[in-house]
Amino acid sequence: MSRNRSEFDYVIVGAGSAGCVLANRLTENASLEVCLIEAGPADNSIVIRMPAALTFPIESDVYNWKFESEPEVELHGRSIGQARGRCLGGSSSINGMVFVRGSDKDYDGWRDFGLEGWDFKDCLPYFRKMESFEGGRDQMRGGAGPISVVRSKADHPLYQSFLKAGQEYGLRNAGDYNSGNQEGVHITQATIRDGVRCSTSLAYLKPAAKRPNLTVMTDCLVERVDFEGKVAVGVTLSRRRGRQHIRAGREVILSAGTIGSPHLLMLSGIGDREHLMAHGISPHTNLPGVGADLQDHVVAPLRFQSTDGVSIRRQLNTFGRVKLGLEWLLFKTGLGATNFFEVGAFFKSSDEVAYFNMQHEFLPFLADFQSGKVTISDGFQYFVSQMRPYSRGRISLKTANPVEKPAIRFNYLTDKRDIFEMVAGIRKTLEMVGQSAWSRYRGAAVDTPDIKASDLEIAAWLRTVANTEHHPTSTCRMGSDDLAVTDGQGHVHGVDRLRIVDGSIIPRVPSANINAPIIMVAEKIAASISSI
Length: 532
Fold this sequence. Notes:
single chain; alpha+beta; 7-stranded antiparallel beta sheet; 27 strands
């Protein structure tokens, strides 16, 4: 990596799921000088590398921005924590590693939203380019890409009961749900390579790190984008040695994420004029959509005790954890090499929806998180999520101080259609748990409604437990309408040489865990930049 420079062709802000992709692909051209700037540290901790340790980076103050929402009006004023990665690899270094592309209808919907070139047939080549799927390469899957995708084993009895119960209820076995019809139960695919988390830092940044045309700066907080007139010419950052200006000869690219990128735009004078002036920021470009249209998957946990000593918790006692750690350290095998989310499902809340709009994720134990520690007990839990929410939130400023986190309002369940769909999805889930496949292992419900509960009772319970799937998108979304912030290649409207490439530009949250779609977006835009 080149060092002690302050001028580059491209300056990328944020070394996360998108930023690492861009750094790799742009530096494939040896004539380009690229600087990648990350607010957090390197990602070489064992709690990041070991898949089973996924709860620890999420609870960390070092690797997680640990954002919190403002009190959510429909959730009894609860503030909801939002995990976003703050290290090399970003959220791909702290997420659950579940690999889901989403439905082809999601991306065809982006095209119908006015974004030519973003339908599924145009996105598929980049999904294939990004992955090495252990099932092999074909017309739908990639076999030589940077991201390793493996099938979970799902051989524990509770995983098998989940799959059988879903099929008894009437769901199909979706098989390779990333290769066609996603609806039905499935064995989960995960971003794990040889027993180690396969983040974008491992997959993209590490191979590029020794290139002489790439400079990586960690522990640097970018405070604003610098402009000369309407042209973005670099960034101002702060580090222990003080402030520094980094200049970009071609482009500044923000990959700071769905929360970080709109925050940085507003700190730089790009956003709603009145909002900026209220915080003492001189408006540079009036873009009312900056921070608007925030979307996220809302989730509710359905928890049950398990009988017959079957819960995986028995393997996670003190002795079991020592055994798990040693086996992983020595061989990268065993429970240390799993993310525990080994089965899942996609299904419709009702026949009225165009295609599946609900997701199940599943754990073969009960887990409570208190004071950064994980308390595990016997049981199993379904996580019920709504895939295409109607409610919209916003990111806004609290102050003009770049160190202060922005205000986040998800507005979960403020659109009554979301409550209707979630209640229907929860009721269907209760019916699945009632199938004979669970008869041997199903114990008492734990803070979970009875199947006989009314819709009003389920809705009331939902407001007490609803939380985030940590899948925020769309706060700087692509488009040409009044709330659009970027065009179909991520260029920020109204200024020159400033681009955004991350989850914030996604126009509609896909029916998927969002890491794979974000990597695809970065691959696709990187290819267009490289062709210039």
